[in-house]
Amino acid sequence: MTTIVVADDHPVVRTGLRALLEADPGCRVVGEAADGWQALEVTTREHPDVLVVDIGMPGLSGLEVARRAAATGTAVVMLSMHDGEAYVLEALHHGALAYVPKDASAEELLRAIHAAARGHRYLAYPLSERAIEVYARAAEASALDPYETLTGREREILALTAEGHTNPEIGSHLGISPRTAETHRTNLLRKLGLRNQAELVRYMLQREARTEGS
């Protein structure tokens, strides 16, 4: 019996995943989580065989959850709205064994979970299974532009922060709370390896210069 924790910030998605997984006689859902910190807490407490986690979790990103969960021996299956190479590489680099786009079939997700539980890598369609080793080697080499791992919202907040807007101003502009803006800002700084506002502005200026020169 494979024990599983399901982590997604949408209740409807969690409910659907639980129903799908519990219909499989080889699976048992032992916990759910609505944000990254809760996902880490439940995973630490339950010690599941597999953690199924959305890449875009609030609070603590799915990537960071994957890194910490994988370090404890839990196999991680990453769910994502994106099937681009950059996202796959970053997920594998953070310890995920399987990567499943959210538009994949239920059968694909179950195959990914069972493969991960056995310690095997699995990339769901339309990602080519034959590319697994290529993805894995590239992830280990870390030859990835960190900017490509930012979500659309993080890129918006990056641009607004670089322009000097505060978290309350960004929240008002994007229709989110200042705390949510701060969470996104913290996540994007971590992904880009930056520490403060000055480094962020310098990064954006350098990136714009490279773009104009290409």
Verbal overview:
This protein is an alpha/beta fold. The protein folds into two domains: 140 residues, Rossmann fold (3-Layer(aba) Sandwich); 68 residues, Arc Repressor Mutant, subunit A. A six-stranded parallel sheet has the order 2-1-3-4-5-6, with helices on both faces. Helix 4 links the parallel strand 4 and strand 5. The longest helix has 17 residues. The radius of gyration is 18 Å and the shape is globular. The mean pLDDT is 86.
What layout of secondary structure does this protein have?
Elements: E1 2-7, H1 11-22, E2 27-33, H2 36-46, E3 50-54, H3 62-71, E4 75-80, H4 85-93, E5 98-101, H5 106-117, E6 122-123, H6 132-141, H7 152-162, H8 167-174, H9 178-192, H10 197-213
Parallel strand pairs: 1-2, 1-3, 3-4, 4-5, 5-6
**CATH-level-4 superfamily name of the largest domain:** Response regulator
Work out the strand percent: 5-15%
End-to-end separation in angstroms reads 53 Å
CATH topology (fold) name of the largest domain: Rossmann fold
The rough form would be described as: globular
Secondary structure class reads alpha/beta
Q: Under the CATH scheme, which architecture of the largest domain would be assigned?
A: 3-Layer(aba) Sandwich
Task: Give me the count of strands.
Answer: 6
Give me the Rg, rounded: 18 Å
Let me know the average pLDDT: 86
